[in-house]
Amino acid sequence: MYLKELTELFGVAGYEKRVRDFIREKIKDKVEIIEEDPIGNLIAMKKGRVNKKLLLCAHMDEVGFMVSNIEEDGKLNIIPLGGIDTRSIIGKKVVVGEKEIPGVIGFKAIHLQKNEVYEPPQIENIKVDIGVTKKSEAESKVRIGDFVAFSVESMNHGSWFSGKALDDRGGCSILMDIIYSDIDLYYDTYFVFSVQEELGLRGAGVSAEKVNPDLAIVIETTTSGDNPEFPPDRRSTELGKGPAITFAHSGYVVDERLFKWIIDTARENSIPYQIKRRTAGGTDARRIATTLAGIPSAVISIPARYIHSPMSIINLSDYDNTLKLVSILLTKEAKL
Amino acid sequence: MIITDTLKSLSSVDGPSGYEYRAIDLIKEELKKIPNISFEIDQLGNLIAKREGQGKKIALFAHTDEIGFLLTRKESDNYWRFTTIGGIDPKAIISQRIKIYTREGSIAWGIVGMLEPHLQTEETRKKVPSLDDLFLDIVEGQDKVNIGDIGVFSSEPFLLSERYFTGKALDNRVSCVTLLYTLDLLNSFVPKSESYFVFNIREEDGSPGAKTVAYRLKPDLAIILDVTHGDVSIPSMPQIELGKGPALGIGPVIDYGYFEKLKNLAENISVNYQIEPLGGRSGTDTDLIQITRGGIPTLLVSLPLRYMHTPYEVVNIRDIEETARLLSYFIARGGE
């Protein structure tokens, strides 16, 4: 399990290099083919028992920002890359650009705020402070277009795990675990670590086109909403209750045959699972499913809390059960 | 003494109001390294160092406490409600990892979670949750936490650039470091005053620490060191800037005679300073010390700081050096 290393890497959407390099280095000797496509997706293949292809996908990118402007006083203006709630980004450490220049996102002190205490900050009022006072000084360290990533140390708490970017380094870690395991793969399995999922599912389709698989499974880290403020009937998943299996989400109704196959497999093997109850948010499955002449696709997710913020959590039993379920699926023929 | 090292250890140590003893212990260890002083801890937990000298009795105060959290109610499973010690912006609390000291002495960890954007509604997006709506998701030590346990921000301090330093609790550990450095510098003089360096408790809790020490010492002059808002525009006020030296407070809570003396000395020894107008009250220990035991002449010297009461406050190292230089001369010359 590479959850700690993976979540601590900086890999904002469009700037996934560090994650890609890390994964490639770790898996290159464990796979038969490994290559990077022109937009940065990493594709690795392990042979199976039959001459058919399964694509297993997890996205490498995380939500973050990029530098859009440098102000006269050396503060950096930023624009979001991916959906970020501005209420969750005050008082955080970040790193900027290739040189990983440290910075903080500060905000006007509570003592000086009037009505704005309870107003969500506007992104144009959020600035990154890299400890300079002049534009020229800032320009010697960072450039417009540099990525801005949250800098968060991950922690393994025993049964829980906290850190940034669990969406979807959780999925990446599952794929790596499978590559490392010696399971008897049924299909020629193409492991795709995709880019730019958070920018509108832009990466995975490109890989799917190249691989042209018979079917695809997307491994995600998804929402839950199982907190005290949120009514149980509006939650999407609950932590500790096993992998979440999607029947439909934004823009894609999951192939019914695959959906049933996954559930039946979980049942037969007594693996706890839950059906994801909300359809908000999409995954790479939506893009893959409509690639070429159409690819039957499914989604299995690790339920998480507080994703798209700098501090998310998962329950490690869900991680283990997701890995277990996917591992079993990969040894079998899908009922298509 | 290496300022950034001391600042780093004092920012890292945890001590919200009423629970300052870890910070006090650490400062005590620093004091042991400084020659020609004696020190004691009083019955409330204030740490008082004394530097002998012939002349007026001058007491310098820096509060050691920081803002923090208190667990108030268990909601369900992992979820706890909390309140704050000192005023904290809810926006600066969201998505933070809070370190909790349990009564049995172990450390527990809690995450202040933010519902994923995917599950937010138009209505919930419009407002920053109040402290009543926020919760701590205890991910480690669930069975160890109790009502009344204290918590702190867990942000690690670091040098933001050559001159700027960031971390939690710089309000007011930066003043503690400045006092230690002043004591260090004082060893190049034969001081013409009897000086007391007070590391007091509970400023964020209404100043009972400073008041009781002032009562006991009854100094001829009390100089309070605290922080003030830097690099932010406040209507009808001069902008206090980081890197431009200490802000000398002026107003009803300040002794005008001593103010002139300190200002003149700064000019004579070329220490940059700024003037900070204080309304009726300063919001620091100064307000209470001035009216203690028959009245005590007071001065407030503030270090400029950005993003007060957030996990990453920012200070300028040069401001610490210059403030300590000014204070050491002032004490050495007997308050002239």
List the defining traits of the structure above:
heterodimer; A: 336 residues; alpha+beta; Aminopeptidase; Elongation Factor Tu (Ef-tu), domain 3; eleven-stranded mixed beta sheet; six-stranded antiparallel barrel; B: 336 residues; eight-stranded mixed beta sheet; six-stranded antiparallel beta barrel; 17 strands; 29% strand
Proportion of beta-strand residues of chain A: 25-35%
Counting DSSP E segments of at least 2 residues, the number of strands of chain B comes to: 17
- What's the CATH architecture name of the largest domain in chain B? 3-Layer(aba) Sandwich
Major sheet of chain A: 11 strands, mixed
What is the H/E string of chain A? HHEEEEEEEEHEEEHEHEEEEHEHEEH
Please state the oligomeric state of the protein chains shown.
Answer: heterodimer
- Share in helix of chain A: 10-25%
Shape-level CATH architecture of the largest domain in chain A: 3-Layer(aba) Sandwich
Mean pLDDT of chain A: 96
| CATH C-level label of the largest domain in chain B | Alpha Beta
Enumerate the strands of the largest sheet of chain B in spatial order, edge to edge or round the barrel.
1-2-12-3-13-16-14-15
Helix content of chain B: 25-40%
User: CATH homologous superfamily of the largest domain in chain B - what is it?
Assistant: Zn peptidases
Tally of strands of chain A: 19
Overall tally of structural domains of chain B:
2
